[in-house]
């Protein structure tokens, strides 16, 4: 069923045409041509055809493309402020193409057709080479990609000036951290220019490049102002971490007595081009301005649970009119990058407490499809499978997914949100091309990529592990720093 120059036909015994439970249709033929759905029409049941349940494909609205599991190399779950140091320091040197290709393959096999990739460089001085490698990996897997260029110009070691943390360490450790993380950074203007150059070299029909200031803690007003101006002038999207932990909340409250959201607005950042990831500690009243400006929030449930950050008030976001999307953040609850499991966790956390209603199934599915794609490419879509819509589809094997269902009370959406995983998928389509069939990525040899990635990681493990004593002293210094509330 690979796409051809003509029209490809897919027969669906069950078709989730939209996000609502009532949107299921039966015995529909879907025509695909030039990357879009050419028509959907009712037809007689095809005797002997596989029992397929067809749904819109998913968009992963926030991720880092971590092909190598953090658990595999010792970056164990912890509070973000101390976890992030090990996540970077202990990562052995591995070909960035392999890291991205294996991560993108896992996403694709779980129904993801497009993803936001917030790049975490192994080497800032090789950022261009890494960007090209990641974009090539996405093209090989078949995912459409938003490549978010990392931008940081302060506070590499903690939410303070670097020297304040270095002063808590011995001389040898100070020098090692300066060499590793606290060297000179390109100016704000140079970083904006780098985004433009990466876009020039990497953008295509399937790749768009976005500005990626890490977050308010790591980006100066000068950098954020330049990003806002460049985004307004070019229409290029911006993707930024926001209010992930309560310490970030305290830091922002101490520095912006008028409110950090108002401050971002004053800088010109709030617009429909902006996606904010996490927002666990965002306050309800702050949502009103975000909704007014058309900002999207990408919720990352698994990551926030694993790093002890909390649970984002997604129901309040929706109540205030903020557009919601869903991201895996490369820290899925089962460490498997299964977007369907992430969707289910998001639903269970936010579908309501006791008899108090929360997000509906339609809200959740819209977040994972329509709003997710908006975060990736700015497109306006409503998540329906209809003529002229992008041909981004998941084909489930209904016998495996819902073959035991005997009650008419149980809808296909109940089954989808209640139990679906990548193991139930028979095929995934992105932009009119089949990218996954029977659990196998068609564009590359995933097993070979995994084997090579693990071999490279093992070869570099000793050098990475040699840093552990320094890392533990640094993490202890971070804990002392963050325990002093006045430091924030």
Strand residue content? 15-25%
DSSP, total strands = 18
| Poorly predicted runs | none
Instruction: Name the CATH superfamily assignment of the largest domain.
Output: Metal-dependent hydrolases
Which shape, going by the Cα principal axes? globular
Q: For the terminal residues, how far apart are their CA atoms?
A: 56 Å
CATH architecture of the largest domain: Alpha-Beta Barrel
Q: Percent of residues in helical segments?
A: 40-55%
For the record, the count of structural domains works out to 2
CATH topology of the largest domain: TIM Barrel
Task: Indicate the CATH class of the largest domain.
Answer: Alpha Beta
Summarize the structure.
By secondary structure, this protein is an alpha/beta fold. It contains 18 helices and 18 strands.
Explain what the structure shows:
By secondary structure, the protein is α/β, with parallel strands linked by helices. It has two domains: about 10-55 and about 385-440, Urease, subunit C, domain 1 (Roll); about 60-375, Alpha-Beta Barrel (TIM Barrel). The protein is built from 18 helices and 18 strands. It has an eight-stranded mixed beta sheet with strand order 3-2-1-4-15-16-17-18. Strand 6, helix 3 (about 125-140) and strand 7 (about 145-150) form a beta-alpha-beta unit.
